Amino acid sequence: MTYTVGSVPYLNAKPLVRMFEELGDDSPVKVIYDVPSRLPKLLEEGTVQAIMVSSIEALKQPGKRIAQGVCIGTQKDVMSVRIFSKVSPKRIETLALDQSSMTSNALARIILKERYDVAPEVSYAAPNLQEMLANHDACVLIGDNGMREEGPGLHVLDLGLEWHRLKGLPFVWAVWLGNEGLDPILSKHLVSAELWGRANIDRVLATAPAETGLPFATCERYLHRIMHYQLEDKELHGLKEFGRELHKFGLVDPVHFPALIAPDFSQELKSAKEHGAAWAMNPNQL
């Protein structure tokens, strides 16, 4: 069976889908790319069986599923989700939100209130630093745009680091979310791709500067030292804590925590046992 998934086009997702691209027509999973805010519609329409989507989406609706073991997360800094401000954080009165991400926008509001005791008036804008700051004290930029800007002379808050300072937990930015179509076999393919991506991160890095327009050193630091792709107990704790904050701020009510769909590796393990060797991650084996 061939599955179709929807993914964000940013650098942070590339290790999770690169294996599918390299397999080409032989891939069990086809990938459609779009910005986070438009991916849920693909899932609702049945165009895809899973989407790599902002974590807030996983907490908003009942009956959803997520692939167990894989996410886009960070332990501390994130580099690619930041607030840029013309004034000190405690003086921010107006905030322009990046219209392409709901999770980052919600987290920005939580951080500003919990860490700096401000609740600015918010509005949405296209992700352009100069235009956003023309009529606002501060703005949120995400993804490759968030990394590309340097913000000289501005106050810059890294929202991953701010979350860690607030809660002492990792932050889960995105998960593979689905309905019934996200079954154990698709979960296996998604986890397999994450394992392959980590094992072949230098192959992802080789093309990253051309694909993103970012310097190689920035891409290398981001993928080697910043990004964290395992969804384990600590990350799940962070995701649940984010849900509690969303509820507290009235941004999600009620919070629905999705079912975790474990990957089914039974056939691969059986094959490995029959051949007397450990199963190795290789795209040609899937």
What distinguishing features does this structure have?
D-Maltodextrin-Binding Protein, domain 2, alpha/beta, seven-stranded mixed sheet, 286 residues, 23% strand, five-stranded mixed sheet, 12 helices, 2 domains
Q: What's the number of structural domains?
A: 2
**CATH fold annotation of the largest domain:** D-Maltodextrin-Binding Protein, domain 2
CATH architecture descriptor of the largest domain: 3-Layer(aba) Sandwich
Number of helices: 12
Helix content: 40-55%
Report the CATH C-level class of the largest domain: Alpha Beta
Q: The biggest beta sheet, please?
A: 7 strands, mixed
Walk me through the topology.
Blueprint: E1 3-7, H1 14-23, E2 29-33, H2 39-45, E3 50-54, H3 55-60, E4 65-74, E5 81-85, E6 94-98, H4 102-116, E7 121-125, H5 129-134, E8 138-142, H6 143-148, E9 155-158, H7 159-167, E10 171-178, H8 184-199, H9 201-212, H10 216-226, E11 227-231, H11 233-248, E12 259-261, H12 266-274
Parallel strand pairs: 1-2, 1-3, 4-12, 6-7, 6-8
Antiparallel strand pairs: 3-10, 4-10, 4-11, 5-8, 5-9
Structure, described:
With 286 residues, this protein is an alpha/beta fold. The protein has 2 domains: 3-71 and 170-285, Periplasmic binding protein-like II (D-Maltodextrin-Binding Protein, domain 2), CATH 3.40.190; 81-167, D-Maltodextrin-Binding Protein, domain 2. Helix content is 43%, strand content 23%. It has helices at 14-23, 39-45, 55-60, 102-116, 129-134, 143-148, 159-167, 184-199, 201-212, 216-226, 233-248, 266-274; strands spanning 3-7, 29-33, 50-54, 65-74, 81-85, 94-98, 121-125, 138-142, 155-158, 171-178, 227-231, 259-261. The strands form 2 sheets. Strands 1, 2, 3, 4, 10, 11 and 12 form a 7-stranded mixed sheet that branches. The chain is globular, with a radius of gyration of 19 Å. The two termini are 12 Å apart. The model has no long low-confidence stretch (mean pLDDT 92).
